[in-house]
Amino acid sequence: MKKYYVRMGDGYLDQMTREEIKAELEAGTADASDKGKIPPLGEEEILQLLEIMTAEAKFVSVERGNEIILTTDGVVVTSDDEPSAGIPVCRSTGVEIWERIVCADTAELGNWDYSYKAVKAVVHSEQQVMQRILYNTVLPVFYGAMPNLGLYTQPDGPVPNPAELLPQGKISEARACQEEAMEYATRDMVYVAGLLYEAGADGINFDTTGAAGDADFLATLRAVEILKEKYPDVPIMVGMAGEVLLGMHGELYYKGVRLAGLQPHEQAAVVQSAGATIFGPAINTRTNQSFPWNLARALTYAKACVEAVDIPVHANVGMGVGGVPMSEIPAPDAVSRVSKAMAEIGRLDGL
Amino acid sequence: MGVGDPFGMAITHAHASGMGGVRTAGDLVARVQMSRGLKTEAAKKYVAEKLGVDVIDLVNEEVMTEVRRELDLGLVYALPGCARGLEAKRNIARTLEIPVNCLRRLGRGE
Questions:
Q1: CB contact set of A303 (below 8 Å; sequence gap of 6+)
Q2: Over the stretch B60-77, which tens digit does the pLDDT of each residue have?
Q3: The domain containing residue B31 runs over which residues?
Q4: pLDDT of residue B41
Q5: Terminus-to-terminus CA distance in chain A, angstroms?
Q6: Is A351 among the domain residues?
């Protein structure tokens, strides 16, 4: 029986029959449907996804007319001091390469220490780099960083560490610490994002939101609200860190919605109500499951997000999220299939 | 988003499903989406109408190079005499009737 090349969730290249791949797709969407309490992919969508999976081409792409917008996080080509791809060019040159060599639809400037707190101390330098980029490029340029609430707790920050208090049973103290950290984080996000917008940035990206749980998410929502009030025209993109919002605090609410445990489509609704422009769900890849299982599962969640809100949805599709295998060097056969499936089956607005 | 990982991640997405950036009309559709909060399909229709082209031609390099040259919206390569940077963005703002933040912030009065 004919077998097709198929990646695993960790990037390992295996082979499966068409029937085996279909079974994986059905199991993946059933898992998302069960855990997220959302509709699974229909039979027609499964067959469409099966065609993408079993296409003989190593690299696949969308049909003409189905293209969507690509946004990103960080300066992909390079960074000052070369921590990323190790190419010794400055970030402003990196964005120009991004515009005219990669030919993506948007670009982003970010600091190598990619957190709003870390940027605060060097924000005026960041403004200068942003201005230099804007003088020389045409495409829209975001400024992005992480809310990263963890940086506000000891030993990195001023607030006692809830991760140390919780094992001691000091629940109320741990919650109070997170609430205090939220105040610092919101203030830093508004300060840095505001200055970068005033320097001319076309948009602001809150990337990997919720990485430290529900307090991290709420701090970001408050920052979005304040920024939209201060700068009504500012486009704001909120991208998530993971699939289910961790209840590190557990009793935080936004406009009456309890944040702990929110699923991607529920996060989307909350982000929209805060006034954000674009939402980015992050659906985790399971390394011990197959690529078809993971992509069907991620698509089910992503589709539910698109249906839940009116704002554009750009799914996170980097390593280990959105169905992309958790592998440092991404395989284009898998990544391009994620791209095509998200655009044509998920009906997303962008990636 | 989330494609900031290096080593071929972003370029794969850019060419498997992206609109082509400044080679075509990808940057223009993105700007409209950002400034007007439109879904991609609606943003494409808006841009196509403003440029006077069919939606399908927004990703056609041959058509879009001509349109961008005529309207001076900036090209992927820098031809002498063609707008780049802020000048191109000023023309984009006028053509698409959208605000472009850096024009206001960097003293171009738009």
A1: A41, A345, A346, A347
A2: 999 999 999 999 999 998
A3: 21-105
A4: 98
A5: 36
A6: no
Q: Answer whether residue B101 is part of any domain.
A: yes
The token pair that represents A274 in the structure block: 């805060």
- DSSP H or E run through A145: strand A141-145
Q: What's A115's DSSP letter?
A: B
**Chain B residues 36-95 with a CB less than 8 Å from chain A:** 37-40, 43, 55-56, 59, 73-74, 76-77, 84-86, 88-89, 92
pLDDT for B4 equals 67
B88: nearest CA in chain A? A138
For residue A160, the domain's CATH number is 3.20.20
Total domains present in chain B: 1
User: Could you tell me if B98 lies within 8 Å of chain A, comparing CB atoms?
Assistant: no
Query: A186: how many CB neighbours lie within 10 A of its CB?
Result: 22
Question: Is the residue at A314 inside a domain?
Answer: yes
Q: Which portions of chain A are predicted below pLDDT 50?
A: none
State the total domains in chain A. 1
B98, amino acid identity: I
Q: Could you tell me the pLDDT band of residue B2, with boundaries at 50, 70 and 90?
A: low
- The pLDDT score that the predictor gives to residue A339 is 97
Query: Per the CB < 8 Å rule, is A104 touching B21?
Result: yes
